[in-house]
Amino acid sequence: MSKCSLFVLLTMFIGVLPVVAQIRGNSIQVTVVPDHQDWRYEVGETATFKVCVTKSNTLLDNVTVDYAAGPEMYQDVKKQGVVLKDGTLTLKGKMTKPGFYRVDVTAHVNDKEYKGACGAAFSPEKLQPTTVMPDDFSDYWQKTIREARKIDLNPTKRLLPERCTKDVNVYEISFQNIQWNWRTYGILCVPVDKDAEANPGKIKRYPALLRVPGAGVRPYGGDIYTASQGAITLEIGIHGISVTMDQKVYDDVFNGALMNYWNWGMDNRDDSYYKRVIIGCIRALDYIEQYTPWNGKELGVSGSSQGGFLSLATAGLDKRITYYAPVHAALCDHTASLQGVACGWPHYFYWNKGKGQEKQIETSRYYDGVNFARLIDNNQKGWFSFGYNDDVVPPTTAWATYNTVKGPKEISPYQATWHFWFQEQWDEWENWMLKQMMLR
Question: Has this prediction a pTM greater than 0.85?
Answer without folding.
Answer: yes
